[in-house]
Backbone:
C-alpha cells in the first residue's frame, strides 16, 4: 500500500488536531519540519506542535487508513483532490 490518511494527535488531550493524506514520510514531515523551526505553511499547526514539545511531549502520528492509489482513497475524493 502506497498512500495513507494520517492524523496528528495532541498527547495532552488525546484528540487529533490535524488530518492529512500522504505517502512516504509525509505524516512525520510536519513534526520534523516544525522541530527544525521551519515553516510548514500552517501557523496554527506549527504552534500546536511547538507547544506540545515545550511541554516535554511528542506529537502522536497515526496512520488511519492505507490505499494502493490516490483514486482508491475516499478521503481524497471528499477533499476534492
Residues:
Amino acid at each position: 500500500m502506497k498512500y495513507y490518511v494520517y492524523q496528528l494527535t495532541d498527547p495532552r488531550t488525546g484528540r487529533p488536531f490535524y488530518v492529512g493524506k500522504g505517502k512516504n514520510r509525509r505524516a512525520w514531515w510536519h513534526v520534523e519540519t516544525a522541530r527544525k523551526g521551519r515553516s510548514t505553511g500552517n501557523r496554527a499547526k506549527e504552534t500546536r506542535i511547538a507547544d506540545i514539545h515545550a511541554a516535554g511531549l511528542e506529537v502522536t502520528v497515526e496512520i488511519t487508513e492505507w490505499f494502493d492509489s490516490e483514486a482508491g482513497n475516499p478521503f481524497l475524493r471528499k477533499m476534492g483532490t
Notes: The two ends are 19 Å apart (CA to CA). The beta strands are 3-10, 15-23, 60-67.
